[in-house]
Amino acid sequence: MEKEILEQGLNLNRRKFLSKLSLGVGSAALGSLLIPDLFKGGSPDEDAIMSALPHFAPKAKRVIYLFQNGAPSQLESFDYKPLLNKNMGQELPESIRGGQRLTGMTAGQTSFPLVGSYYKFNQYGESRAWISEIFPHTAGVVDDICIIKSMHTEAINHDPALTFFQTGAQVGNRPSMGSWLSYGLGSENSNLPAFCVLLSRGKGNGQGVYSKLWSNGFLDATHQGVQFSNSEDPVLYLKDPKSMSRDERRKMLDQISAMNDLNYREFNDPEISAKIQQYEMAYRMQTAVPEMTDVSKEPDSIIKMYGPDCLIPGTYAANCLLARKLSESGVRFVQLYHQGWDQHGNLPSEMALQAKDVDQASAALVKDLKQRGLLDETLVIWGGEFGRTNYCQGKILEDNYGRDHHPRAFSIWMAGGGVKSGMVYGETDEFGYNITENPVHVHDFQATVMNLMGIDHERMTYKHLGRRYRLTDVSGHVIKDIIA
Amino acid sequence: MALINKRSIWSLPLLALLAWNCTSENSNIPELSAGDQISYNFHIRPILSDKCFACHGPDANKREADLRLDTEEGAFTSLKESPGKFALVSGSLEESEVYHRIISEDPGELMPPPESNLSLTEKEKELIKKWIKQGAKYEPHWAFTRAEKPNLPATNDWSENEIDLFVYQKMKSIGLEPNPVAKPHELIKRASLDLTGLPPSPELLDRFGDFTGENNYDDLLDGLLADKAFGEKLAVLWMDISRYADSYGYQDDNIRSQWPYRDWVIHAFNENMPYDQFVTWQLAGDLLPNASKEQILATAFNRNHKYTEEGGVIDEEYRIEYVLDKTNTFSKGLLGITMECAQCHDHKYDPFSQKEYYELFAFFNNTPEKGYEGDVSISKPAKTPVLWVDQQDLSGIMSFINYQDSSKLSISVMGELEGEEKRTTYILDRGVYDAPTVPVSASTPASILEFPKDLEANRLGLAKWATDRNNPLTARVFVNLIWQEIFGTGIVKSAGDFGMQGDLPSHPELLDWLAVDFMENGWDIKRLLKQILSSSTYQQSAELTKDHLAKDPENIYLARAPRLRLSAENIQDLILASSGLLHQELGGPSVKPYQPEGVWEAASSGRGVLATYVQDTGKSLYRRGLYNFIKLTVPPPKAIIFDSSNRDQCEVGRGRTNTPLQALVMLNDPMVLEASRVLAMNLTSKYQDNTEALEMAFKRILCRDMKSDEAALIEDYFEDQLERFEKNEDQIKPTLEVGEYPIDSTKETARSAALMQVIVSLYNLEETITKI
Fold first, then answer.
1. Are A208 and A200 contacting, i.e. CB atoms less than 8 angstroms apart?
2. DSSP label at A387?
């Protein structure tokens, strides 16, 4: 019931309720006249799809997506390619590049010198996965995560690539993954939004994020991601004005409700009573959200686990801790973005700083969920929008190089939520340029996330302007190999 | 010209159209009686389109068994895979393969196949069965047939004009009676919001009173239509259609200056420019003989879409992206069709081939525009081709542009390549920029209206085609948009899709009558609005009865006026106007009012002049919502919370949700609090009597007098708050001191603080931001 209230903003329920009412009287009055479904795209289609959800028993109930915005290099994180160090400075063979289109950043380069990782790699855990030295904490949870080294995408620029990951299409105004899940599954907590968004920024070259990434697209606006901020208003307009106590707020809401109720008695419009309920939920949110953002009750062990940054609002570490709290409270989809991963140059210095921002807290999140027994039902995802080239952008200098965008192969990791742990999936060639086994397209990834949440990505569609849309557009296969 | 059907398409199946209801799928289907006439357009095509056309429709590449059911010819041809058998045989269930396949219990035979995740309901099967028995007659798609004026239904006492004749007939068919006329103050508020987007002032309410004095309802409408705020109200709709924004979009999202185009739109609406001319100038103003700068400015319509300034992009990839956007905006916004589906493949539902998509695309593909003009570090306010506007222009024909600076203005507009520079357009395989296949020349989809050979094969020719009397879509689509503006839902609910998958019109004859009447009377927008607002249909009360809820919960039959929440822009307008804070000034550069801290900064790349939000001060804080600065990557959060378009692409309608975030905005937004404070302090100065002050506040905000039960509640709350502030004097200052509007500290009293709280509660009433 709670789910229904939050998810549909009452409108759909009202419609259902009213159309049920209409059956008796309506059909009698109509006699034998025909009743075609003239208003298609409305409730019948939607109801049929909604009532079928979930399509099968979900493995994960909630998602926390740690988006590494700007595209972290796979070659300095999870895809170990010693050949690049061995052949440092040599040309990338044309046979390997195979006509891959290049961005304008390096299209004019006459030389494509291979460049190896500045950082050392070691093998960890039972899976013996290779992880670079700048991710020591992630290495510590390697047996709880599944590294996918064979991701690939279609876009080569940030904006379309990010949009593709989040909405399944490079352009256009489509719903984000969190909006789809909010729409399909609703929230487990009637005092919090089903889809929350947390932003942070690292010290590396950044690319910005865009609110369309958490847009509801053509879905109802109740499914848009609600952005949390580190200002005194964790959610926009949440905080009451100065000198307004909770009692005074309550009193004003009672006054508003009483007045609205008088109006309802005159017009009988159910929209008015729906309004009264929305004000009540707003009131509850005003208590529930600050409880979320307050970390003062977290024990020292937790603070230590996430690192001292978690006490500084707006940092990645603080957002990871907040994500855990939101998720624990039933928020369906928590989307983090950490900016600063666009290392066209200065990779050795910037990437270490970026890794330092995220490594400990990302690993802590996995550990924390696990110790609370929540990891099994919470899917954690870590990754960027594409990978980076195995050759240097510009010239290789001592202690400095950079990498351009690379769509053909990159690495992400997933943990919990029904994903196999301690696994490395997919492989790239020794140049780290092309995928050699088990490619995972962005739509495959999305289909897999939906599957873990109990949704058949081909069946959960939404009809908008005559077409049935889905997150995975017209493709996507569930990667069954990584599902436990 | 093709598809000209002299007889109104609605005349044949009228009997069946008279009554229908929007029921849920599992409702009991009334028995079909022998006399019921099944209509292909109304009953069958929606089923076939939704459940069959994806594999047996217009898309030649995805057609299964070489069978197409979207054309009569295809459906009655001998089946390729079973020669001698037929999908449909007129009047014979036995011989019609379609029938056997839809009722089959063998999953291998059943249509639609189980793996499609589609299935037919019993009701749908029954309809198809009956249709076949009755001869399986096809009809041309209603929206692609020339609109004709249907005969008017019989007159009646209730009807004020032609609109009512159609509406009355329809509501009577399900046994509904029209609601009584709305109360005069309701009508004044309703008409004022609909025509100007502003609430009526107490003075206006008093002047018109109950319409029995010197000023009647007709005068009210004329006055509102002549108000300059009229153009501002209608411009909101057009800004959504033309995806207007003040930044370039994409990652760094720097500033641009398209706002003179917005000023032109306001001007054109206020001057009541005929819609056909309005469309022509926007599509092809630059191609008109001796084009004026104003005509060229109008073509900015085609250039409002996003432009990338991301370093390293491929020029042609984005140039193509821009042409696609122009094509899709024209299709959706002006023709009401979802042409973009044919970008990658033949349309799945509508008779548009991929070739036809690129033929339409070709009209927009010949502008000297670049895909990339450099990154944000060398960003300019407009991109090639640019229209320059100088002081001389501003004091001449461009005086409608509100610009106080002495520097020249530049706006991105259209231009046309000539001679050898002309581009060849190709079909792009899968819609990808670097996969050109067959060259095509500019033309329009034949199924809508063939492109006459004597027209210029450029945007001017396209504009003439779009505004031709024989074009079946342009007038219908616009009339429907205006209907949607007023009644909340169009006569065709899917205002952006008049194709096979779109919703059927609720009042088909009315739509056609209005569209033809509109064309016959010079595409006169103000006349159309006056026609609608003068109708008895419009003037009904919004009160809901049990009968309404039972028979017509969605108000499709219009036996009452709708109650509709205002748009984000008009909510702002109402708050500022009713508090007396509104600064009424037409046009000008967009403004940056109060916005929560850090909203832009959190999402910014840190580059460009829009990396940080620099709030305006003074009168710029009190402009209408239309003028709020729109940064595409972070659109104004309040507006998004209230369902406005994010302007990412052409939109022809907004949702109308009711969420807790909206409640938080209304309770805590500094704009609401400041407006409440200013109004409270003005009223406490003006009126010594508390009741008088409360009455005036109520009248300004609710646009009516309080009723006694309301007055009791309000006075109690006021007394309570007065006591609170008298007891806690330290709370007065922090409560009142919100917003930048100057405050007279000598008047910071418990009384004004208490009144402010009452006013905040009034702004939060459902009725306040609702058109009733």
1. no
2. E
Q: What is the mean pLDDT of chain A?
A: 88
- Contact of A35 with chain B, judged by CB distance below 8 Å, is answered with yes
- Determine contact: A302 vs chain B, CB below 8 A: no
Band of residue A45 on the pLDDT scale cut at 50, 70, 90: low
* Local structure of B78: helix, strand or coil: strand
Nearest 5°: phi and psi at B666?
-65, -30
CB contact under 8 A, A282 and B667: yes
A367-379 pLDDT tens trace: 999 999 999 999 9
A11 touches B at CB < 8 Å: yes
Nearest CB among B655, B663, B757 relative to A282 is that of B663
A432 residue type, one letter: G
Torsion sign over Cα B171, B176, B182, B186: negative
The Cα–Cα gap between B336 and B354 comes to 18
Of B310, B553, B602, the CB nearest to A19: B553
Token representation of residue A168: 């399944």
DSSP structural state of residue A143: G
Cα separation of B541 and A136, whole Å? 69
**Mean pLDDT value across residues B82-91:** 90
- State whether B603 and A199 contact (CB < 8 Å): yes
Q: Does residue B178 have a cis bond before it (omega within 30 degrees)?
A: no
Q: Which residues in B215-242 are b (16+ Cβ under 10 Å) and which e?
A: eebeebbebbbebebbbbbbbbbbbbbb
- Cα B256 from Cα B629, distance rounded (Å): 11
Which phi and psi angles does B564 have, rounded to 5°? Answer: -125, 135
Cα B97 to its chain centre, rounded Å, is 42
Does A287 lie at the interface with B, CB-CB under 8 angstroms? no
SS3 state of residue A197 = strand
- The CA-CA-CA angle for residues B587, B589, B590, to 5°, reads 95
Q: pLDDT confidence of A9, banded at 50, 70, 90? A: very low
Task: Output the CA–CA distances (angstroms, integers) from residue B202 to A333, B564, B692, B711, in the order listed.
Answer: 48, 22, 13, 18
What's CA B293's distance to the chain center, in Å?
28
Query: Scanning every residue of chain B, which has its alpha carbon at the shortest distance from the alpha carbon of A35?
Result: B20
Which residue out of B664, B708, B715, B732 would a mutagenesis test of the A interface target, given it has the greatest number of A Cβ atoms within 10 Å? B664
Q: How far apart are CA B555 and CA B551, in angstroms?
A: 9
pTM of the model: 0.87
Which pLDDT score, from 0 to 100, does residue A44 have? 57
Beta strands in B253-338 (DSSP E): none
Answer yes or no: do B646 and A211 touch at CB < 8 A.
Answer: yes
Q: Minimal Cα–Cα distance from A260 to chain B, Å? A: 6
Per DSSP, the three-state class of A159 is helix
Q: B137 by DSSP, 3-state: which?
A: coil
Q: How far is CA B385 from CA B98, B300, B391, B410, B412, in A?
A: 55, 10, 20, 10, 6
Contact A221, B643 (CB under 8 A): yes
Q: What CA–CA distance (Å, rounded) separates A466 from B53? A: 12
* Sole residue written with tokens 């979930």: A54
Residues of chain A in contact with residue B701, where contact means CB-CB under 8 angstroms, are none
The 3-state DSSP class for residue B572 equals helix
Is residue A235 less than 8 Å (CB to CB) from chain B? Answer: yes
How confident is the model over B573-590, as a mean pLDDT?
A: 98
Distance CA B291, CA A238 (A): 52
DSSP string, B476-502: HHHHHHHHHHHHSS-SSS-TT--STTS
Asked if A211's CB is within 8 angstroms of B640's CB, the reply is yes
Task: Return the amino acid letter for B638.
Answer: K
Contact A34 B731 (CB under 8 A): no
Residue B62, both tokens = 């995805």
Hunting for tokens 């009644």 — which residue is that? B487
Does the distance separating the beta carbons of B707 and A465 come in below 8 Å?
no
- DSSP H or E run through A381: strand A378-383
